[in-house]
Design brief:
With 137 residues, the protein is α+β, with helices and mostly antiparallel strands. 29% of the residues lie in helices and 17% in strands. The relative contact order is 0.18.
Length: 137
């Protein structure tokens, strides 16, 4: 990344945050523009814009941290439901170009709202997609 994001500034200690969790690879902190009580951001310390750019160590650390932080958010807020959201690219609604996950508890009717418009997948199209995707694994 060429521009220093707000998350890079937080990691560098230039901007304070309300730390929920931290380890060698991950930082979690309260969102200052929350969708609901307890809305928490979980970021890797690796400074990349998109999920597919993460190295294996940071990706694994996020995988370990997300359930731990989600459990703490649920217990701390009393919520029993939540969403985990992660966007990649401006057209996918990414606003800060540093990988980040939102843990958004559903509290008092507040939280993440999602519009879902499912399509369909034919067997032929599935076969084409599988071939194309698996060729890159």
């Amino acid at each position: 990344m060429t521009d220093k994001t707000i998350f890079a500034r937080i990691l560098d200690g230039e901007i304070p945050c309300h730390r929920v969790y931290e380890d060698a690879h991950v930082l979690a902190f309260l969102d200052i523009f929350p969708l609901s009580h307890g809305h928490t951001l979980v970021i890797p310390k690796q400074r990349v814009a998109f999920l597919h750019e993460l190295d294996d160590d940071h990706a694994a650390a996020l995988g370990r941290a997300l359930p731990k932080v989600a459990r703490a958010v649920l217990s701390g807020t009393g919520a029993t439901a939540y969403n985990v959201l992660q966007n990649n690219g401006a057209s996918a609604h990414q606003a800060v170009f540093h990988v980040h996950f939102h843990i958004v508890p559903k509290v008092d009717g507040k939280g993440l709202g999602i519009g879902w418009q499912p399509g369909s997948l034919s067997a032929d199209r599935a076969t084409e997609l599988l071939t194309a995707i698996r060729a890159h694994l």
